[in-house]
Design brief:
The chain is an all-alpha fold. It contains three helices and no strands. The longest helix has 33 residues, at 34-66.
Length: 95
């Protein structure tokens, strides 16, 4: 060991620092309760569902106004679903 601090750009050093911080937080706060875990799962579900429903609603409004079948509904529903999944992934990754 050279005794100098690890390079901030080093992915392994960042991962080790992140794990160390999570471990310190766990020691400080303890294990979350079952109710808290269930609440997090519920919130995660809504993070995915709400953008999909918004896409569905907006798509139906546009299709109804333009009398275009499901031309806008399907793509906006998929876009909302993709946005919801991306948001959920970012939320889980940050936790």
């Amino acid at each position: 060991m050279s005794g100098k601090p690890p390079d901030e750009g080093d992915a392994l050093a960042r991962a080790a620092a992140s794990r160390s911080e999570r471990h310190r937080r766990w020691l400080r706060e303890g294990e979350p309760s079952v109710a808290r875990r269930l609440a997090e799962i519920g919130v995660l579900g809504w993070v995915i569902v709400i953008p999909a429903l918004i896409g569905l609603f907006v798509g139906r409004l546009i299709d109804h106004a333009l009398d275009s079948g499901i031309f806008w509904t399907a793509p906006l529903l998929l876009l909302g679903l993709a946005l919801g999944c991306w948001s959920a992934w970012k939320w889980v990754k940050s936790a």
